[in-house]
Amino acid sequence: IIMDEPTVGLDPQLRRLLWKYILDLKAEGKTIILTTHYLDEADILSDRICVIDNGVVKALEKPSILKERWKSQSLEDVFLELIKEKDKEEKK
Questions:
Q1: Which residues contact 82 (CB under 8 A, 6 or more apart)?
Q2: With contact defined as beta carbons under 8 Å apart, do 63 and 79 qualify?
Q3: In contact, 59 and 51? CB cutoff 8 Å
Q4: CA-to-CA distance for 50 and 45, rounded, in angstroms?
Q5: Can you tell me whether residue 43 is helix, strand or coil?
Q6: What percentage of the chain has pLDDT greater than the value 70?
């Protein structure tokens, strides 16, 4: 199942209902590819996270391992660190 930003524009109640549906599908063994800009959502729903920046894979790992590697409590902080690296490379 491919879902492209399925929760954009949803109110919090409907968003949580959709999360439950996605988690139920996951529990049934379904493979789901989901794109989102909501990193809290990615953390809750994903077994693995792929961060792509301008067509380049910057990270591909379990959310817990990404947070551990970057010594962070949130995927948002991990993302910001990955982007910071990109900015440093561009300034060289």
A1: 51, 53, 58, 59
A2: no
A3: yes
A4: 13
A5: helix
A6: 91
Return the structure tokens found at 80.
Answer: 């910001």
Amino acid type, 87? D
pLDDT < 50 positions in the chain: none
Give the separation between CA 52 and CA 43, rounded to whole angstroms.
16
As given in the structure block, the two tokens for residue 16 are 């949580």
Neighbours of 39 (CB within 10 A): 19
Amino acid identity, position 64: S
Question: What pLDDT, on the 0 to 100 scale, is given for residue 25?
Answer: 98
Reduced to 3 states (helix: H, G, I; strand: E, B; else coil), residue 52 is: strand
| Tens-digit pLDDT profile for residues 37-51 | 999 999 999 999 999
> In the beta sheet, which residues pair with residue 61?
49
Structure tokens at 90: 């561009």
